[in-house]
Amino acid sequence: MRIECPNCGERDRREFTYQGDALALRRPAVDAGEQAWDDYLHNRDNPAGETKDLWFHEAGCGAWLVVERNTVTHTVQGAVLAEKVKR
């Protein structure tokens, strides 16, 4: 799989670290309880199809990216800097 980094251009996905769903992952409050923290740390949905994921360009420019991709076909539709994504 190839990811188009807005800073560095097209790169192999091995330069990046996957961090999860870009829009759904929210850190719980410090006192949220054991189940909320267990879900945050260990439990993730595994969708088939179109997703927006958060990736870190670890072996490159160090940017955080939101990557639009299809988890079934592994095609990447695009990537933008996470700081430019409105929540």
Average pLDDT number: 92
**Beta-strand residue fraction:** 35-45%
Side by side, the strands of the main sheet go 3-4-5-6
Rg of Cα set: 14 Å
Distance between the termini: 27 Å
- Percent of residues in helices comes to 10-25%
Order of helices and strands: EEEHEEE
How many distinct helices?
1
Structural class: mainly beta
* Major beta-sheet overview: 4 strands, antiparallel
Instruction: Note the overall shape.
Output: globular
> Number of DSSP strands?
6
- Low-confidence stretches are none
Protein traits:
87 residues, mainly beta, two-stranded antiparallel ribbon, 1 helix, 6 strands, globular
Helix-strand blueprint:
Elements: E1 2-5, E2 9-12, E3 17-21, H1 34-42, E4 50-56, E5 64-70, E6 76-81
Antiparallel strand pairs: 1-2, 3-4, 4-5, 5-6
